[in-house]
């Protein structure tokens, strides 16, 4: 994906986001296992490919997941290797998390375009490899497990579908920092609860989150996609059409099928600089203009830093998204 624009640190290090960063920074300086219930003897963690025994207090942690480094940093560990999802960010880490690197420069062990580079992972000499928000295959898992204990996506969810709460807790268990994981999860969950309570109009309204897949073709995110969960955690519900999206977080739909993509709120994700292309495609698609949500003005295109924070959906990015997105969508539901 193209660079979606540099976010200023000042914009992120305020309010609840700043409080959460302060909590994570305190964890970084605490040392030891941080009071985690599994810290003294290691832990057994289950993922899509079985059980993994992790040693106590791992020191050289590599993130091969698309956004796992955020939870790792929030729990007080600086990874020695990270995966570069998108955005051309320094150290492949966005501003909501970058300060927690403390000046470190983790190795880039893979990108969304090239995949995981096992040789680069090996070069970091890891003692734990984490990739919970990923599509790691059995073959990749086997190769990574030969280097160090490896914990990837949980079997209970679609690939790239682990909820941020589960992700943080899984990583907390693997790091021996379960207590800290509960602290940071609770802080973000409290903010979701507060924002939902302040916006009762969200409750029970249907939402669809879509994106441009290519010329003349769109796609709809399924219930397990983090962007969809962002809205359902605020009280929205999934319409029947999205319930048919199983074992994946995104399903393409043809132009003709757009008539099925109607809801009380229709959200288009256009991060990475795709906003203009999306608008051009929608403008020349007659069936889209006939949607009830379009005629009634209940659609929105999210394409800025708040959209990226929502997309990352981590304990470090979500507070910013919660500050910025709900105020934009609330007026649409009163039309």
From TrEMBL:
**Gene Ontology biological process terms in this record:** iron coordination entity transport
Q: Which domain of life is it from?
A: Bacteria
Query: GO CC: one term?
Result: outer membrane-bounded periplasmic space
Tell me the compartments it is located in.
Answer: Cell envelope
Major subcellular site? other
Q: Which residues form the Fe/B12 periplasmic-binding domain?
A: 60-333
Sorted alphabetically, the keyword list is: Signal, Transport
PROSITE patterns found in the cross-reference section: FE_B12_PBP, PROKAR_LIPOPROTEIN, TAT
Q: Which Gene3D superfamilies match?
A: Nitrogenase molybdenum iron protein domain
| Sequence similarity | Belongs to the bacterial solute-binding protein 8 family.
PANTHER family, per database record: FERRIC ENTEROBACTIN-BINDING PERIPLASMIC PROTEIN FEPB, IRON III DICITRATE-BINDING PERIPLASMIC PROTEIN
The molecule here is called Iron-siderophore ABC transporter substrate-binding protein
Natural source organism: Rhodococcus spelaei
